[in-house]
Amino acid sequence: MTHVSSPSAPRNVVVGVAGGIAAYKACHIVRAFKEAGDNVRVVPTESALKFVGKATFEALSGNPVSTTVFDAVDSVQHVKVGQEADLIVIAPATADLMARVVAGRGDDLLAATLLVATCPVVIAPAMHTEMWFNPATVANVATLRQRGITVIEPAHGRLTGKDTGPGRLPDPEQIVDLANAVHAGARLPQDLAGKKVLITAGGTHEHIDPVRFIGNSSSGRQGFALGEIAAQRGAHVSIVAGNAAELPTPAGAEIVPVVSTQDMFDAVQERAGQSDFIVMAAAVADFTPASQATSKLKKGSDSDEDALSTISLVENPDILATTVKRREAGELDSNPVIVGFAAETGDEHTTALEYARKKLQKKGCDLLMCNEVGMGKVFGQKHNEGWILDAHGGVVDVEHGSKIEVAAQIWDAALAYREV
């Protein structure tokens, strides 16, 4: 099991920038690392400076910017920058830059820095779709990954001009989160290539009337983080998202928006039979109002007063338990690995972990990620922690870390379980 944790000490981070229209997004990446307390050195190519000026990168990073191996020769800068780096992130990376890295070129400061670096290197490509799928680029990406360099899958969306498709630079927040996870030890091998992954995320809303609803504080961050890691590891990802916050879409993922638990139940059952892995990370409501008013209930009116003070509830369908039962009955052709989530608080008699063990046994899923939730814990936060339990009795501690790091551990556990 890969151990990952969030960075706790300032690091020397090199942000490489190649010459593409997405170079402006590198400014947000530099700022994010700086705000986290890192020492950031921007190393652009000459072409990159045609899109974003040297002064901008120097102002944001607080360090001098150079593109050539002939600057600061007395301090052997062309070697020193790479030797001292704790993490190198190249965003955007063009097809040309990746080709030069594969060839081992050292004709500018960025290429030379990569030649001497021994730290984790994360490359975020950005280019037109035809360039991304060109056999030369495909081969270069495969070579870089074989050499231990992490190459992030590009996003799908609007490109330069009227073109749309895969090749767009991912959101800066996604790049920073993935880079931090890689630095902390997360792996992004293509071990989910060709697999179909179904994930639930966010919280469901059970409407009382057109205005009011019963809900929870789930942001959907953990579910989307699971989708991000799965996509980066090669999977075809579908996320059934219940009222999730505005989060960046994982590379190539299908987002299925739903509102209520019943909506989520229907969407999952429709797709479950074609999925190799199903991860139920959503915070669903166990109960829903027995009836929903068609117009807003008015506070204080004689006819509506009882309706607002007393709400009759009925039980929602159990998405996780139903999916497990369908698998056991042979109704799911793909025989998926099923992962559940348990948001527990514990009490004076029973710990959150003990409640999770009972839930795992009751639901019958293969793995269960248990979060100890509460005020200011997990829901809506960028970090998570807890335990991963499996049906064989195993328990793995998940230490406090970003949700993208926790997602990497969950996928490690799910793939290991499938191999048992």
Automatic annotation (TrEMBL):
- Cofactor stoichiometry and binding remark: Binds 1 FMN per subunit.
Molecular function, one GO term: phosphopantothenoylcysteine decarboxylase activity
Q: Would I find Ligase among this entry's keywords?
A: yes
Q: Where is this region: Phosphopantothenoylcysteine decarboxylase?
A: 1-196
Domain (Flavoprotein): give its ranges: 12-177
Q: Which InterPro entries match?
A: CoaB-like_sf, CoaBC, DNA/pantothenate-metab_flavo_C, Flavin_trans-like, Flavoprotein
**Which reaction is the catalytic activity of this chain?**
N-[(R)-4-phosphopantothenoyl]-L-cysteine + H(+) = (R)-4'-phosphopantetheine + CO2; (R)-4'-phosphopantothenate + L-cysteine + CTP = N-[(R)-4-phosphopantothenoyl]-L-cysteine + CMP + diphosphate + H(+)
Positions that bind CTP: 286, 296, 317-320, 341, 359, 363
User: Which Gene3D superfamilies does this one have?
Assistant: CoaB-like (3.40.50.10300), Flavin prenyltransferase-like (3.40.50.1950)
Q: Does the keyword Acetylation apply?
A: no
> What keywords are assigned to this protein?
Decarboxylase, Flavoprotein, FMN, Ligase, Lyase, Magnesium, Metal-binding, Multifunctional enzyme
- Name a biological process GO annotation: coenzyme A biosynthetic process
- Pathway involvement? Cofactor biosynthesis; coenzyme A biosynthesis; CoA from (R)-pantothenate: step 3/5; Cofactor biosynthesis; coenzyme A biosynthesis; CoA from (R)-pantothenate: step 2/5
Annotated coiled-coil segments of the chain: none
Member of which family? Answer: In the N-terminal section; belongs to the HFCD (homo-oligomeric flavin containing Cys decarboxylase) superfamily.
**Function per UniProt:** Catalyzes two steps in the biosynthesis of coenzyme A. In the first step cysteine is conjugated to 4'-phosphopantothenate to form 4-phosphopantothenoylcysteine, in the latter compound is decarboxylated to form 4'-phosphopantotheine. Catalyzes two sequential steps in the biosynthesis of coenzyme A. In the first step cysteine is conjugated to 4'-phosphopantothenate to form 4-phosphopantothenoylcysteine. In the second step the latter compound is decarboxylated to form 4'-phosphopantotheine.
Q: What protein name is recorded for this chain? A: Coenzyme A biosynthesis bifunctional protein CoaBC
Q: Which organism is it from?
A: Corynebacterium glutamicum (strain ATCC 13032 / DSM 20300 / JCM 1318 / BCRC 11384 / CCUG 27702 / LMG 3730 / NBRC 12168 / NCIMB 10025 / NRRL B-2784 / 534)
The gene name reads coaBC
